[in-house]
From TrEMBL:
Organism: Flavobacterium cellulosilyticum
Cellular compartments annotated: Cell membrane
The protein, known as: FtsX-like permease family protein
Topological type in the membrane: Multi-pass membrane protein
MF terms (GO), sorted A to Z: transmembrane transporter activity
Keyword annotations from UniProtKB, A to Z: Cell membrane, Membrane, Transmembrane, Transmembrane helix
Domain MacB-like periplasmic core: 26-255
Amino acid sequence: MFVYFRLLSESFRFATNALRSNKLRTLLSLLGVTIGIFSIIAVLAAVDSLDRKITKDLSSLDKNTIYLMNRSFGPSDIPRWKREQFPNVKYSEYIYLKSSMTNTDQMGFQIFTGRESIKYESKTVSDVNMVPVSYEFIDIQGLEFEEGRFYTESEANSAATVVVLGKDIAVSLFGDSEAIGKKVRLYGQRFTVIGVLTKKGDGLSIGNNNDTSAFIPVNFARQLYGDNNKNSVNVIIFKPQKDVDMGAYKAEITQKLRNIRGLKDGEIDDFFINVFSGFTDLIDVIISKMNLVGWVISGFSLLVGGFGIANIMFVSVKERTNLIGIQKSLGAKNRFILFQFLFEAIILSVIGGIIGLFMVWIIALILTKALDFDFILGLGNILLGTGLAAFIGLISGILPAISASKLDPVEAIRTGM
């Protein structure tokens, strides 16, 4: 065992000597491995960080939450021209389903609509994500407040001019002063600020972030836009009770809505029942495809890096032919020479991989500060990058190591003289 530790030590010394004596050649050879490891680990770290961020943002939502609307979260077999003819769900349908559905914890009504500007005195915040929702939304999404409250059932039903602001909107309008009770101008009217949400952080989150959103009673938006506005999408949100049979629950929604709309047997549903777990599954598919694309693109860099390591090892064998002959004449066995060059290739490749990992770590620190997004280089990705670099070194160094181990000692000494 001691012999192999000594062999590893000598291989590391040979590798570092190669780096010092042939800096440019070694740098160019390691560049492919460095870029390959950097590309793969950067993509994996970015995707892992994004996945962690999405999971955190969506953790307050029950995966069984259902969105009833005229659009589908994912691909559909129904032709696009036919889907575009599907009517918006109506507030009256929401009222009926709320009174008739069983096994339901919460139900809410939301309108996806355009962005607006909010003014306070001389300050204006543009491109605000407006979220007209019914009062149940606070329990469905689990909103958290830094100050104030959400609007009540009576305020929601009466279309009261009250608004709940995301943290970023509140800071932009009021700075460090208290927001509750302030009057802001929105839709040409004065709204009273009754609540400010806790900041969640934006970064690279999916969809619209609550920090840059404003929540108003859905009935105000209905009075403004009507129930059949083509520029808005109505949604009925269901939060079923725990342990409910989702198949039976969806079937109940389907049957009741078909009855309301008078759909006959044989006619297709003109609505979509989107389960939130389907959306998260779609995100998982997208993330896995991003990982795959990263591996494919980075694989070419690793391939080039592998050829670079193989090239430098063949040159190293050529330069040390005389030394190999002397080692063999003094009793060094073939496997000793084989392991010596194999370890050297692995060490060179790992050095390139470590440089790539260091670059990812530096960029992760920069992006975390610049984007207010936790870009994390996890231990798993560090071990993966190091192991992958070692594997590339192993594969690239096999042929040069075998050629070195098979050299005839006499011929090797003669050739090297």
